[in-house]
Design goal:
The chain is mostly helical. The chain has helices at about 1-5, 20, 35-60, 70-75, 90-105, 115-130, 135-145, 150-175, 180-185, 205-225, 230-250, 265-280, 280-300. The longest helix is centred in the N-terminal third of the chain and has 25 residues, at about 35-60. The chain is globular, with a radius of gyration of 20 Å.
């Protein structure tokens, strides 16, 4: 509501990284009016919420199936104004939800080589859209550590899938005598993690209810940890690592925008949904959610 009331005069939508635009042309970039941009972003978030909800229910991550994950996904994806417009991270969240589903399957299959290969290729495609997505490569091996005994083929297959995509990217650059530009793609990986942060705290007060709910979710998880199924324990550990990696990967892109943290929404929404599905004091958790929603609206308007 807030963003439609006060529409920005112009919204840029960069669908691909500059190095990918060299060989892939997307004519829809920057072709939307601000109103259309926000409308289609809302549609994408709604579709993602339905897909996300289905995956959470299919893998039994909560006590009972329902639409709670979708509700928390849409609410979390509305935290900041930059979350509500078309952005590369919004597109990448489709891929993140997809690989989340595949990671949750690797403990249920006798052979995970092909699944890991597929995930590696999906991560490579995500890196073409938004380069910091490349940190999800670490999730390949973290997930294998959590779910499976050591098998070197599984550990290598994900990396092979990733390199397959970038091999063809490198060949394209080589054909056009620009192989030096291909090597520059990887320079952001050498960035040092920043030691000083410039934060305007008033802009992030909306996160206070989120932090409270995340802490309560962690306490709830700790209390129920050894009473849960082993697969559920491993799933939440995997999602926690995914959340941390998504948040910390901002340093790869020095000119990152606030919409980067939209990548934290899928794993974070599962943790929030877990709290609300296990909370017992109805007056407290419903009041907390109401405060959460009102806080989002207040900071979007001001």
């Amino acid at each position: 509501m807030a963003i439609f009331i006060d529409l920005p005069p112009r919204l840029n939508f960069e669908f691909l990284e500059p190095f990918a635009k060299f060989f892939i042309q997307i004519p829809i970039e920057n072709s939307f009016s601000p109103g259309a941009n926000i409308f289609f972003a809302a549609i994408l978030i709604f579709v993602q919420a339905i897909l996300f909800n289905r995956i959470v229910n299919n893998h039994g991550l909560l006590n009972k199936p329902g639409y709670l994950p979708a509700l928390l996904y849409i609410t979390s994806a509305s935290l900041f104004m930059p979350f509500l417009v078309l952005s590369p991270t919004l597109i990448c969240n489709f891929l993140l939800i997809w690989i989340m589903d595949k990671f949750l399957k690797i403990g249920k299959t006798p052979n995970a080589i092909m699944i890991m290969f597929d995930i590696g290729m999906i991560i490579a495609v995500g890196a073409l859209i938004y380069f910091p997505f490349i940190v999800m490569l670490l999730m390949l091996w973290l997930s294998l550590l959590l779910y499976r005994s050591f098998n070197w083929r599984e550990w290598v297959s994900g990396l092979v899938g990733f390199l397959t995509i970038f091999f063809f990217v490198g060949v394209f650059y080589y054909w056009h005598d620009d192989i030096a530009l291909f090597y520059k793609i990887w320079l952001p990986l050498t960035n040092k993690f920043p030691s000083v942060f410039k934060i305007h705290y008033n802009d992030y007060l909306v996160l206070v209810p989120v932090v409270i709910m995340m802490i309560l979710a962690m306490i709830q998880l700790r209390e129920n940890f050894f009473r849960s199924f082993i697969s559920t324990r491993k799933a939440f550990q995997m999602l926690f690592f995914m959340f941390i990696l998504a948040a910390l990967s901002f340093y790869i892109k020095p000119d990152f925008r606030l919409y980067h943290f939209l990548l934290c929404v899928p794993p974070g929404a599962v943790l929030l949904a877990y709290y609300f599905s296990n909370a017992t004091k109805r007056w407290f958790y419903e009041s907390l959610f109401l405060v959460f929603v009102l806080t989002i609206q207040y900071f979007l308007f001001v």
